[in-house]
Amino acid sequence: MTTTQPGADKQDVYQEAREEGAVELETVRQLDAADPLAAFRSRFAPTPDGLVFLNGASLGRLPAATADTTDALVRGEWGDRLAEARTQWLDLPQRVGDELAVTVLGARPGEVVASDCTSVNLYKLGAAALRDRPGAVVLDDDNFPTDQYVLTGLAEEYGREARVVRTDPDRGPQLDQLRLAVEGGAALVSLSLVSHRSGALADLRAVQEIAHAAGALVLWDLSHAVGAVPLELTATGADLAVGSTYKHLCGGPGAPALLYVREELHGRLTQPVQGWYGHREQLAMRHDYYPDPSIRRFLTGSPPVLSLAALQPAVRLLGEAGLERMRAKSTALTGLFQRLAEQLLTPYGFRLAGPADPDGRGGHVTFAHERARELVPLIAERAGVLVDYGAHNRIRVSPAPLSTRFEDIHEAAHRIHRMLREENA
Q: Which residue among the candidates 396, 405, 406, 408 is catalytic per the annotation?
């Protein structure tokens, strides 16, 4: 393989990782030498010696700058300025939201806030849609369980029918089933853009066309998409979205979720959890409630300032790296693991349980195994490889492109192979 200099076409840099055939150690080392994102690895706190981290879809790595950022806020703002520092935090949900909008969501400033958790934001926006129009709630049976709980609860609360679409567990939502589900009208269609289980990437434009034709708004859960897949929410006419920021965005444990509302909908949608942060005159302490005309109307209470501060370094890091380059490396990494798994792990019961084409999935590749729940902790303990267990006997492998080398993928697959071979000897 010819070594490619940083800045060369992304397909030239990573193509060999996705090609068929045996994978030699020298090949992956050459890929690392040519990787234009290689320098970002040093921008994260190191993992413990001997461990290979392939679980970015569960909790992202710690950016090295995060500790300094939060320490400066705790000591310099809270510690030194005490209550006087509060005024500079009042608009922090919007400021972080604007960074998310421009950096990873393809949205306009003023269309995103960072607040609460994904479940709460899902409830707020789902209720806003049902307050706005009549019709059923449409969801799928492969969505993350909390999404199903929230959405079916909303349907019951607002006296609507909940229509649950059957989803292929390996390929994601099927458009023909969605068309049938919205017949007769719907108020809300809510799906995950990337399946938490299989990694399957839904067709955003096609789903929205089907939903809009039936009179419904679409509420996307971007938890496994944001930071892993380049998004253009404004350009594609997306209505509503929520998502966690502690996975591919590396916001840390308990990081606030994102909430997106297309600007054209701000004036007509109202959310059910009215609080002082969403009031038009936030500091006036009025007894009557008037929602702010901007995205701030979807806020409720005081923001989690420390968590918002911890999120900023990671978002800026992703912006510096560039989502297109990250996506190219991500598909190359999962494609490489897929090739190695076919050669080394298939004989031991591993079966690809998601789209075969890396471009058709998010940032993780999934394998089915009848002993998945048992194997995941064994792989961590005996092979030193951190992967994730997914429901229904699935093993998720999600290499973070900014901190994972191609050699890490090669090493991880061979460690798991050796463990399984010794177990079956």
A: 396
Per the document, the length of the chain is: 425
Burial class (CB in 10 A: 0-12, 13-18, 19+), 306: middle
Contacts of 415 (CB under 8 A, 6+ apart): 52, 383, 384, 385
- d(CA 266, CA 268) in angstroms, rounded, equals 6
Judge whether 389 counts as a catalytic residue: no
* Ramachandran assignment for 115, one of left (phi > 0), alpha (psi -120 to 50 degrees), beta (any other): beta
Q: Exactly one of 246, 260, 277, 350 is catalytic; which is it?
A: 246
Can you give the pTM of this predicted structure?
Answer: 0.94
At 130-149, the pLDDT tens digits run 999 999 999 999 899 999 99
Q: Catalytic: 221?
A: yes
- Structure confidence at residue 7 as a pLDDT band (50, 70, 90): very low
* Residue labelled with tokens 């009549």: 134
Whether 364 contacts 357, CB under 8 Å: no
Is 144 an active-site residue? Answer: yes
pLDDT band at 24 (very low <50, low <70, confident <90, very high): confident
Report yes or no: 404 and 38 within 8 Å, Cβ to Cβ.
no
